[in-house]
Amino acid sequence: MGLFEKIFGSGSRDQAVRGYFETLTAYNPVFYTRGGGIYEAMETRAAIHAIATHCSKLKPHASGPQGARLDRRLQLQMNPWQNTQQFLYRAATILEVDNACFIAPLVAENGRTVGAFPLVPSSCELVENASGELFLRYQFTNGKHVAIEYSRCGVLLKMQYKSDFFPESNAPLIPTLDLIDVENQGIENGIKQSAAIRFLAKLGSSLRDEDIEKERQRFRRTNLSAENNGGVLLIDTKYSDVKQLESKPFVCDAEQMALIKGNVHDYFGTNEKILRNEWDEAVWSAFYEGKIEVFALQMHLALTSMFFTEREQALGNDITFSANRLQFAKIEDKVNTIKELFDRMMLSPDEGREILQMAPLPDGLGQKYYIRGEYLSEQEREAIKAAKAGKEKQE
Hints:
It contains 13 helices and 14 strands. By secondary structure, it is of the alpha+beta class. It has three domains: 3-169, no CATH class; 202-244, no CATH class; 326-395, no CATH class. Strands 1, 2, 8, 9 and 10 form a five-stranded antiparallel sheet that branches. A hairpin with a 5-residue loop joins strand 9 (134-139) and strand 10. Helix 2 packs across helix 4 and helix 2 packs parallel to helix 7. It starts with a helix and ends with a helix.
């Protein structure tokens, strides 16, 4: 039994399809993954890797009556083959490469979703069965296909415009990829060509082609071989002039290279400091809010709808994702934040220790919340006033 059967079951989950689901636009509801080429360029892969790496640091939290039983498991293992960090990294990578990430549910015998797995289908079709229920039918490169209820799948999208359900392609990035390819080829060819000819010699008389070739071999053997370890070049009267050619491989100037890299950063929402791990608190906060937070929101909405029914969601069951944004702050800012929030019941001792990269206290001692004595709710204040008034009346 392979991964396909383990995810989708040994029985066929394909459904009797009536036809394509009619969308509001004129586009066929079919999505093809054609963006794999952008992952082959070093510049684009570095940007995608940086985004996926930071997305993989997100921490899931399952809350609510049914969510409590999932919380610990989802923080460690999203499915039997991927831990949570690997799941988030791959989902973010797929989203950045294809502008869409489809997440399949892992369903237990009782019908409940107990895990999730990110898919990379060769195509995905939006279809409906005879009763009008909407399905996503995935086609994979191994020739297998499966249809799953749209309501049970998680779908992450970006750059969605013309299609009602699927994203646009990465066509605007193709010219930049072509420039990267031309730049790399230019450097490679320039090095090869400049290394091929190192000296230019002018013969003082006309010779036949075979004699010119013999003289070229003799000149190279006598002056340019490893045996000439003295470094002295000697020529006779056959040559009227000998010049050494400098090897200067062609490379784009700094401005052109900055423009190419800038196009990649603009497209993916990154920058040099993020890619080189040289960010400060301000750079990280901007990157988090512009990129990571959006991914966390989409993953929250997708997994919540996959794991819980509408009724269960109405009862407060959901799955959220958070990140310790203070881990990149200066130590003074961390300490001040902990001091301000600790006695306002917003941070427990363990949460404060986590900010400082410290282990939690043993035996659950750090899980309590504390509040200053002078902080009272409106109801408590009214109760104290009533008790004082009653005591004065008795006196």
